[in-house]
């Protein structure tokens, strides 16, 4: 058991992911002891359900940990070591619009990719900037571990707006989830499989997967996928759309056999096919509302009513929560564990722009991420990433400058859109839907 205990605030405390993260905190106390956990949300109702659940969970599993919840910023951000951030500006109502509006114009609607991700990005930046400013007012040295999506846009915006910040780390759980699923194909412990990975968030590739003997297991894993398809390791917990998404890894591998792709590349490599398979009246938001959101809130309410979480199987501890807690532990206790995270490029991928926020494997120490050098990448990947980085950069600049032209350029560069007339139609519709959240684009 480590001696140093940390104080944490979970921003977006009323998130559907909170119970899993809180559970993961209780199961990692030996490596990551906690003094205090606060939950903060702007939605008091959601916050109360999860906050009351948290009190019961910790009373039963770790009564020494102080637990509270609040909608007050100062109370939330004062005197903390870690800010775990996972907010959703505009909630599921706006996510539904992000997914459904682009489809009216023949373009994919997705939470983080294409125009949906663009719209969500312009909403997230404002609240994320406010969060960083408030945190710095009340806890100048706290680490901000951000999961808020679209993480690619959020990471780039925060890097541009707070260039001196050294304690903001943006993370996605998809690489670690994929790693777990790859490892299960060869019956190997995922924690012992060392990845080499490069790209942007939701836009990257595994190039090698080394086992403990230094053998690259990637060729074997590719063969298994090419001969038997690909399913996530936790397939029984997944909705159909995620099973379809994982299955597309085989298609991508047939077409581009060099590396193992992040699942999100399906939207950029096969935009027409993905659009043809999508239902414009029922998107992922409908699945989440009827599935995860309903289940999580019903279960937390039941636990609060019964006063115990001991009999709960719904609130499990998955890769998402584990990773958030392990990343914090590796930083706080200088464990130097390797995770795939987002960092400013600065030559790590030697032939990509220095100012891009790339996603690569890094060792996490008390000094933050120490990324592993990747070197130059081949033309196909370089071309794809440069255009996507252009899209991300123009999106952030459109926000910062209030520029309609840059917004239009961003969407035109995005591989899910391409046609500038379509880009304009989608942009105009999104401007109308996001009036309450976006800066004015002139
Ligand atoms: N990086 C990753 O790989 C990863 C993985 C899973 C989820 N996520 C992200 O985590 C977030 C939560 O997802 P969810 O599906 O649970 O959504 P959710 O809507 O259930 O939860 C988000 C919570 O944030 C709150 N919120 C909104 N604006 C806020 C603000 N300014 N300050 C504090 N709280 C605020 C909402 O009231 C809500 O309770 C999303 O951004 C999602 O995209 C990221
Ligand atoms: O559509 P959602 O809200 O279910 O998820 C969107 C998120 O998808 C990825 O997260 C995966 C995660 O990698 C995996 O652990 C598992 O728990 O499922 C999640 C999806 O349900 C993605 O990395 C996130 O950025 C998305 O927010
Ligand atoms: Mn992600």
Automatic annotation (TrEMBL):
**GO biological process per UniProt:** carbohydrate metabolic process
Binding-site residues, Mn(2+): 172, 202
Example GO molecular function term? hydrolase activity, hydrolyzing O-glycosyl compounds
Enumerate the spans annotated as Glycosyl hydrolase family 4 C-terminal domain: 197-417
Query: Which residues bind substrate per the record?
Result: 95, 149, 284
Where does the source fall among the domains of life? Bacteria
Co-factor remark: Binds 1 NAD(+) per subunit.
Keywords recorded for this protein, A-Z: Cobalt, Glycosidase, Hydrolase, Iron, Manganese, Metal-binding, NAD, Nickel
Cofactor(s) the protein requires to work: NAD(+)
Any single Pfam family the record assigns to this protein: Glyco_hydro_4C
Record site feature (Increases basicity of active site Tyr), residues: 111
What residues form the catalytic site here? 173 (proton donor), 264 (proton acceptor)
According to its UniProt record, which protein family does this protein belong to?
A: Belongs to the glycosyl hydrolase 4 family.
> What is this protein's record name?
Maltose-6'-phosphate glucosidase
Natural source organism: Alkalibacterium pelagium
